[in-house]
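Input sequence (269 aa), recorded before submission:
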Amino acid sequence: MSLLTDELDFEARRARFRRIAEAALRERHVQGLAGFGTLQEKRLHAVVKKYLCENEDYHEVGVRDTRYVADVRVGNDIYEVQTGDFYPLKAKIGYYLAETDCSVTVVHPLAAERAVAWINPESGTVTKPKKIGYHSRAEELLPELYPLLPYLNNPRLRFRLLMLSVEDFRLLNGWSADRKRGSRRYERIPVDLTDDLTFANPDDYRRFLPAELASPFRVAEFSKRTRLRGRDAYSAVRVLAALGVVRPAAPIGRAMAFEIAPRGSAQNA
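Predicted structure, token format:
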């Protein structure tokens, strides 16, 4: 058995993820309603950690004599699983890069496919999960990277997107007539892996440049092509500029503009 998924091709990775996710789902079914919500996001976190490295001896490993604990550490390779915003990781990542010689991979799971089941908090009944159209896209990684801007060009820092199929269990406790609007998510259960993308160098981020994006371009045009809105679009362009994938250009009218940098130039940015 491979210690890290890095050593496997995608089909083997997917099979491994499915096996681990199915085991977690069986555990929840055995626990019944008592198992709902007890771990909340921690269940997703635990599945991803085990997917990265099945040997739990390498989970939650302390880093030197500090308060920092790596989610997974194998030798000099550290993996941090972040299901939410990246800002809370800033100090930790800064320490790893400045005070150790470890390579750091931030692993970010996103719900590429979603099904929703509803829990009646009064009767305890649970509906069968039903697929819905709203889902996350890989482009959503870019604005999340903004808090880590100072570290993006460090060759020892990588980012990894796990695109997942998930089942969300939500409480029928919202304010609308059907009690769904304003409801609270009770638990997210990972079901399948649809993609596993690693960003190890600046040119890897070129996949986020829409083919039809003109150069130079305004942020508004980037927003339209990527469907990233408002502050997220500005943050995404700033991230690409910090990586050297795009660079400032002469303003277009009164709007600031950027141009796409030549491939390979990003490493020297």
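Checked by second reader. Residues 56 and 137 are 30 Å apart (CA to CA).
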